[in-house]
Amino acid sequence: MDGKAPLDVIAASLRATRGRSGLSLTEVAKRAGVAKSTLSQLESGTGNPSVETLWALCVALEIQFADLLDPPRPKVQVIRANEGPAIYSERSDYSATLVAASPPHARRDLYRIVVAPGPGRESQPHMPGTVEHVVLSTGRALIGPLEDPVELHPGDYIAYPGDVAHLFKALEPNTTAVLVSETS
Asked: Is the pTM of this model over 0.70?
């Protein structure tokens, strides 16, 4: 735990967790079975909470009790351009660098794509329910379902079913993009 007083830490943890959950003060108080004024006081760093009140709030917010006293710290991860584990295509000048793997209980991966002009990368269908999202960063490219790809320019975005054959074909040198693959 950091050097802050426990009530300050609890207050900050409650405010942050409730904010992330999108729940109102009234809703959290109702779910926890505590008075709204009690929750308000705790979030402002005043009051004298009992263990039972704190446990009830943890249950209502779906967090561990320890998270109130020693909240998880955000992890910052930086991957510089041209760093990270790249995977290359055998058939085209195409590389995909995994930037962020899907965390447990989520189904999405984030890639940085680098493609040179040529035959393009034809991908076979992925798992059913897969959707790919692409934001073109530089260059021009044909992206989307194999039968009907769309020409994108820098800043353009496309989402398409990844569970059908699809294409990423650079039309200019130094074509780069960010691709998010998600499966429902």
From this structure: no
Cα of 60 vs its chain's centroid, Å? 23
Most confident of 7-16, 54-63, 64-73, 163-172: 163-172
d(CA 120, CA 153): 16
Is there a contact between 75 and 38 (Cβ–Cβ < 8 Å)? no
Question: What is the reported pLDDT for 63?
Answer: 85
pLDDT higher than threshold 70 for residue 79: no
Pairing of strands 150-152, 141-145: antiparallel
> pLDDT for 137-148, tens place per residue?
999 999 999 999
Helices 51-61 and 6-21: crossing angle in degrees, nearest 10, is 20
Domains of the chain with CATH codes: 6-69 (1.10.260.40), 86-183 (2.60.120.10)
**Whole-angstrom Cα distance, residue 47 to residue 44?**
9
CB 169 within 8 A of CB 119: yes
Q: Tokens 């830490």 correspond to what residue?
A: 9
Q: What does the pLDDT read at residue 3?
A: 46
Q: Which two tokens stand for residue 96?
A: 């995909």
Report the distance separating Cα 152 and Cα 156, nearest Å: 6
